[in-house]
């Protein structure tokens, strides 16, 4: 099944580059493009794409405002914010506006494609750089941590003590190498723990594990 994308980006070079990522793809295609926020809203009204790939810094209204207006048209719309901005307020405002994902532009091609596909299926995605900011501020985007350690063990008894420690570091945005240094273990062992956590929490990757941990108050 083909996923139709509305690409919203004001810089031509970036827009062309992003469009080229999906050339020759049968499962993801750029069906429409917009350079401005209001233009994106109008195109969405007509085309109703499966996923909107939205920049924040647009010439007229921001990508955040455009996202809000798109969700007002269709509350089932899937908007992926793709940006170089790591502003705390912009992250929070984007998610409150209804964005399903907040992704930094330095992401690799395959990850971006995977995010688009999973967002289309209803998933939420947060860049690993974003998670610690939301956890620190906890402004209502992610519910507060409510589960005690004892409750966590009761509900996730198959997660070992070490895996629980690794999960907390994953939530903090640490890489496998940084986790290894923090816990004085090898990077290979750290990677194995992360893989086990992903499997036990029934998620697709470390970002989803971090989001699930925060949403359910696991850490």
| CATH H-level superfamily title of the largest domain | Response regulator
Helix content: 40-55%
Task: Please give the order of strands in the largest beta sheet.
Answer: 2-1-3-4-5-6
Q: Structural class of the secondary elements?
A: alpha/beta
Largest sheet, in brief, is: 6 strands, parallel
Overall pLDDT score: 84
**What is the subunit arrangement here?**
single chain
Q: Which strand-content bin applies to the residues?
A: 5-15%
Number of helical regions: 11
- What is the CA-atom radius of gyration, in angstroms? 18 Å
- What CATH architecture label of the largest domain applies? 3-Layer(aba) Sandwich
Cα distance spanning the termini: 37 Å
CATH class of the largest domain: Alpha Beta
**Integer tally of domains:** 2
What's the shape? elongated
Sequence of secondary-structure elements: EHEHEHEHEHEHHHHHH
What is the CATH third-level topology name of the largest domain?
Rossmann fold
Q: Uncertain spans, ≥5 residues at pLDDT below 50?
A: 143-149
- Strand segment count: 6
What do these coordinates show?
- By secondary structure, the protein is of the alpha/beta class.
- The chain folds into two domains: 3-127, Rossmann fold, CATH 3.40.50.2300; 149-215, Winged helix-like DNA-binding domain superfamily/Winged helix DNA-binding domain (Arc Repressor Mutant, subunit A), CATH 1.10.10.
- 51% of the residues lie in helices and 13% in strands.
- It is built from eleven helices and six strands.
- The chain has helices at 12-21, 37-47, 63-73, 88-97, 109-120, 131-137, 149-155, 161-171, 176-183, 187-200, 206-215, and strands spanning 3-8, 28-34, 51-54, 79-83, 101-104, 125-126.
- Strands 2-1-3-4-5-6 form a six-stranded parallel beta sheet, with helices on both faces.
- Strand 5, helix 5 and strand 6 (125-126) form a beta-alpha-beta unit.
- It is elongated.
- It starts with a strand and ends with a helix.
- Residues 143-149 have low confidence and may be disordered.
């Amino acid at each position: 099944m083909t996923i139709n994308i509305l690409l919203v980006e004001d810089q031509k070079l970036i827009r062309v580059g992003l469009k080229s990522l999906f050339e020759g793809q049968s499962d993801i295609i750029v069906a429409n493009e917009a350079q401005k926020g209001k233009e994106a809203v109008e195109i969405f009204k007509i085309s109703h794409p499966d996923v909107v790939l939205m920049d924040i810094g647009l010439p007229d209204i921001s990508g955040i405002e455009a996202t809000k207006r798109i969700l007002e048209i269709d509350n089932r719309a899937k908007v992926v914010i793709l940006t170089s901005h790591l502003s705390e307020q912009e992250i929070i405002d984007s998610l409150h506006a209804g964005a399903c994902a907040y992704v930094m532009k330095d992401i690799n091609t395959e990850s971006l494609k995977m995010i688009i596909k999973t967002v289309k299926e209803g998933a939420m995605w947060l860049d690993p750089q974003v998670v610690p900011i939301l956890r620190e501020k906890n402004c209502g985007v992610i519910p507060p941590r409510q589960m005690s350690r004892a409750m966590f063990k009761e509900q996730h008894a198959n997660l070992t003590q070490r895996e629980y420690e690794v999960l907390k570091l994953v939530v903090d945005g640490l890489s496998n190498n940084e986790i290894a240094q923090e816990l004085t273990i090898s990077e290979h062992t750290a990677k194995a723990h992360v893989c086990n956590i992903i499997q036990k929490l029934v998620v697709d990757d470390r970002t989803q594990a971090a989001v699930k941990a925060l949403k359910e108050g696991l850490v």
